[in-house]
Amino acid sequence: MAGAVSYQAGLAAEAQVAAHYQRSGRGIAARRWRGSGGEIDLIARDGAGLIFIEVKKSASHARAAERLSRRQMDRIYASASEFLVGEPLGLNTAIRFDVALVDAVGRIEIVENAFGLD
């Protein structure tokens, strides 16, 4: 039961974050896209570029941020590379990796370039 509640809370957080990006003029290219490396929660279009978004929900933004591991970032990188193969510019596509932190009351904090790439 707790797992199902957590799963539904994660889906709701992803929907909130998708709406946030859409309000800022960025279309959602994919939700829960799965590559061989793992799943990417959201992929948004930013002009000709892409934003790969990991959504983390917890009681606070700080606790949510703690839930992102180096191993998970590596899996997201691998899946992003797979996704880029289907893009017109391929691996030359401008990209960034954001983390969207959602707290218990639904406040969203976006950490742009969260994986340290510029």
TrEMBL record:
Listed SUPFAM superfamilies: Restriction endonuclease-like
Entry-linked InterPro entries: Restrct_endonuc-II-like, tRNA_endonuc-like_dom_sf, UPF0102_YraN-like
Signal sequence segment: none
UniProt GO MF annotations: nucleic acid binding
Gene3D superfamilies reported in the protein's UniProt record: 3.40.1350.10
Similarity field: Belongs to the UPF0102 family.
UniProt protein name: UPF0102 protein C5F46_13205
Native source organism of the sequence: Phaeovulum veldkampii DSM 11550
